[in-house]
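User: When convenient, might I ask for sequence and structure tokens for a protein?

AI:
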Amino acid sequence: MTAPASTSSRITTDAPTLPGDGTPRMSGEARYAELAARFRPVFQRIAEGSLDREAHRILPFEQVGWLKDAGFTTLRVPTRHGGDPVNHEHLFRLLIELAEADSNVAHLLRSHFSFVETAALQPSAFQDRWFPRIADGQIFGNAATERGGNALGTTRTTLRHEDGRWLLTGEKYYTTGSIFADWVVVMASTQGVEGRQYALVRADDARVTIVDDWDGFGQPLTGTGTAHFAGVPVDAGDILQRTVTGTLEPAFFQLFLLAVLAGIGRAALRDVRDLVRARTRTFNTGSGGLFRDDPQIQEHVGHLASKSFAAEAIVAAAARDLDAAVDPDLALSPEEAFLRAELAVQQAHVSVPPLVLAATSELFDVTGASSVSTGKALDRHWRNARTVATHNPALFKARSVGDHYLNGTIPTGLNSIGEATIPHPPTTGGTP
């Protein structure tokens, strides 16, 4: 029986800034300006229908296709596989702009870009198999989390070896992006194999069913629903051992969500700016002039803009730490590289959500009662931000950061979701 391949569990000090050995053609703002000029027309097209799509639950299949055609999904493909790779900072800045256009579209690509990062850690044979597909525009979705019943660190979704082949069976939830994808990266357990595995299966396989049944009040168009796998055949070379504990993958995965949040903050500022500029009615308790000329309104919008700016700046700073962590010129040890990236993203995780949640709530204070019209759907910014911010609660990140600064503890995570295995401490009565 062939054992699943193993992912790397360390960071090599000679790791390049980009997947593979690709180097950007130019650096800094000139490079970003070139990238932004390339993709902003696509982002604008996506923004134009975002409110209507969310109001009528129209999944953005067409918009994902536009990004694919523009080459957006290939931005981290190594040069040796035909890519023109960007660094982390530029990728996350572009994602912020995409999230401003439509936070759902940006969010649903999280698993795709995370798989690209994972593929870059694999042996050359795996990269030679999968990077050409990514370069060709194929998209990857996610199926990791289960609703319940699985012990922490395990899954009820299983891989079994039968008649000379591997078969995947199980049910997943929170399968963000998979309904738009060509391939689904499925977390599973295998009898006799320690830990968990990733199995790659075709999304259009007849034994794969993906249902758009996400009922959250925010991010409704991300395809975050249920996926069923009924004995799906999996090539042995497409099964990866999930043992990653010391790479930048967790930091990348979480920073992606913070980029979506920063984009939502930009969208809220954009909408409130447009509403205040266009408003001609005023209150009898105000200055009597146009809202846009009122000093108090200007001050309030200034606070909103500053919160949005701070959120975006924090995400960009954390992305630069990801780039620094794998910069061969810095020659960081694997432990130093992991700590630099993980600590930066955990601190960003504590800081960014409150800024965006405040901005998306306070925008109503400068627009008047007409702003709560369902036709304007300004509440979607708070709902979407609140939904994204529930991923990995910030209080756990804050505790981890505090423990590091006080005790030198290296931030770690369980890297899984499931039923708690630590028994509840006994109660003895009285005040602890």
Q: What stands out?
A: The mean pLDDT is 87. DSSP finds twelve helices and nine strands in the chain. Strands lie at 5-6, 140-143, 158-162, 165-172, 183-190, 196-202, 208-211, 226-234, 239-242.
